[in-house]
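Example 359.
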Amino acid sequence: MPTKESSLSFDASILQHRFNIPPQFIWPDEEKPCPEPPPILDVPPIDLSAFLSKDPNCVANATKLVDKACRKHGFFLVVNHGIDMKLIEEAHMGMELFFKKPIEEKEKALRRPGEHCGYASSFTSRFSEKLPWKETLSFRYSAEEQLSNIVQSYFLDKLGEDNVGFGRVCQEYCEAMSRLSLNVMELLGMSLGVGSSYYRKFFEGNDSIMRLNYYPPCQKPDLVLGTGPHCDPTSLTILHQDDVGGLEVYVDEKWHSITPDPQAFVVNVGDTFMALSNGIYKGCLHRAVVNNKTPRKSLAFFLCPKSDKIVKPPKELVCDENSRTYPDFTWPTLLEFTQKHYRSDMKTFEAFVSWLGNK
Ligand SMILES: O=C(O)CCC(=O)C(=O)O
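Predicted structure in complex with 2-oxoglutaric acid:
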């Protein structure tokens, strides 16, 4: 007997033309997209190669901008990042082809309950309300030398020979994101005043997650959300969005949009980095809306520490005026919490801290 979930696959080729939206996708009024286009968020563009040049003026300028953004909402852009545009384009093209495949092909990599990797659409999740209007493919990346082919092997094992080329592109893309996030960690270390190598070292050998988000058009975009409001539980997110637009961030009690820029990566602090900075830098609520014409794609690299790393702030960031805000934890415990005990939303980390306390 097919389960309820498998008989209700999210078939975008059908759903994108429907005017009667299945009720599972309709969000409550207070969470629906804004009726008018929201104001644009002022996110500072950080010139990463200027920062890495170590020119004192460039370093001072970049750290000042990052510090201000991370104390307020945790979002900034990196430009002049050194990532090959051709690789970014190949990743977008590969995604386009992958998500256009028949559902049976994509479901070869089906994400199972309690797992965080694989192909997922709304109806392959464990939830039955406030479903996101999207399909995703998530996979693990490790910067450890002995796992240097982990992404490519995943594609081959789950999706077969046809996807080897795309697997290679995703492997290369993750390696580039891992390098980029270590450079951003230098920037965050400098702006927090703990030096450029502290967080870089902490995340060497990172065990991260890559997610490809594909948002088909929806005939009633005002009723649905592509990604519901949440803070990232991970450490740092590096997002590349195509030119369609849809990313929104909740700042000063209203939603703001982040204008797409193909030359830039959108970077945001997640809950784990908030803990590593002893609450000085904050993660922030964000979501993605969809439209009725154009599919939208985004590539999100979620930097996570290696599993045995204890998440706790450096002693320089703990003092009488700013005592320890969060308990020690390891990333796999928080990941398990989000997979098995709690649906990520605006209160994930708060709920995790109280769950840890009761354990
Ligand atoms: O697609 C986007 O712009 C946001 C995606 C996101 O927030 C996520 O994947 O967690």
